[in-house]
Amino acid sequence: MSYFERYLTVWILLCIGLGITLGKYAPDVAQALDGMAITVNGAPVISIPIAVCLFMMMYPIMVKIDFHEVVKAGKAAKPVGLTLFINWAVKPFTMYAIASFFLGTLFLKFIGPDAVDLVKMPLGKEMLVGDVYGAGKVVLVDGVKMLEVPLWRSYLAGCILLGIAPCTAMVLVWGYLSKGNDGHTLVMVAINSLTMLLLFGFLGGFLLGVGKLPVPWQALLLSISVYVALPLVTGYASRKWIIATKGEDWFREKFLHFLTPVTIVALLVTLILLFSFKGETIVQKPLTILWIAIPLFVQTVFVFALGYGLSKLFGLSYENAAPTAMIGASNHFEVAIATAAMLYGLSSGAALATVVGVLIEVPLMLMLVRFCLATQGWFRHEAQ
């Protein structure tokens, strides 16, 4: 783990401060950047700055993946099957349940029962001012139709998007630091990248609908295409081309070394953009971060404990148990951030919730790495 990655939480806090400062003292700059968007029927759908930043986050991850490793997954069917079960059959639904309880019940009086958030109109929906859609109502703001939804439900939407996006990036670092099976981690990164193409939109649409939130199916599918499929295809194609022309040694020692900081730099730039819009909210209600962070913390620890416990129950070695638990606990916050910004807007509560996920993930995952290392004796070990 490089110096830059080790202190990611520090850089995140600095970028949050810069974003808040930018939003407070130079709001026109942030609004101009947000105005750079691809529109559909006059409605902004894809923020070009966010799309560029996310591509730069995702491409270095995707280009590292050797998808031939997926074929080897059959040799470790038990850890792969358990990881898929936790990621797609458990995690999205526990995230919904935990976030709903904390945000919609336990912390509702602190968030504000009557507090509302203005989010983008669902792509492809033609509605009149005053129409009701889910828990939202169509209102006119500065001549633009927006959907007014309860603020806690907007935060819930961001939590849902985090819950349906299993990690395919930093989890490689967590698996390595916990002395896990790097091969298993790599296989799951590849499988999760492919599985997201099929399940991200389906589960996202279903759970957002259950939460009485806007379900812009066209935008969900478009977000998968732009934010997952495009870097996935580009990474796969460029990997093959570079290795064929320059050789695998040059690819690994030169090209990947150059790309290492790109993902984090792009993430930090995205955070500056996001917080430039949410700065006023955070200054006025700093505890907002805490109300969102607590359910995300509980969800992460619960999913980790479930993965670690089931790994012990099914007799997995420590080398497979550690990454199995880590993969389930961590989130693909890059995709969650971009999708929230695309579906609901950069200034939405949903976008803020995904950013809080980034804020707590690094220190929390490092804590879980230390827990794994301290409990290696609970498991059998693979022969070296």
What is the element layout, followed by pairings?
Elements: H1 3-6, H2 8-25, H3 27-34, E1 37-40, E2 43-47, H4 48-64, H5 77-106, H6 108-111, E3 116-119, E4 132-133, E5 136-141, E6 144-150, H7 151-163, H8 171-177, H9 182-210, H10 217-246, H11 248-259, H12 262-284, H13 287-313, H14 318-329, H15 333-344, H16 349-374
Antiparallel strand pairs: 1-2, 3-6, 4-5, 5-6
Helix pairs in contact: 2-3, 2-12, 2-16, 4-10, 4-12, 4-15, 5-7, 5-9, 5-13, 5-14, 7-15, 7-16, 8-9, 8-14, 9-10, 9-14, 10-11, 10-15, 12-16, 13-14, 13-16, 15-16
Condensed summary:
The protein is of the alpha+beta class. The protein is built from 16 helices and six strands.
Task: Name some characteristics of this structure.
384 residues; alpha+beta; Na+/H+ antiporter like fold; two-stranded antiparallel ribbon; globular
Provide structural commentary:
This protein has 16 helices and six strands. The protein is an alpha+beta fold and 384 residues long. β1 (37-40) and β2 form a beta hairpin. The protein has a four-stranded antiparallel β-sheet. It has a two-stranded antiparallel ribbon with strand order 1-2. The protein has one domain (3-114, 152-378): Up-down Bundle (Na+/H+ antiporter like fold). The model has no long low-confidence stretch (mean pLDDT 79).
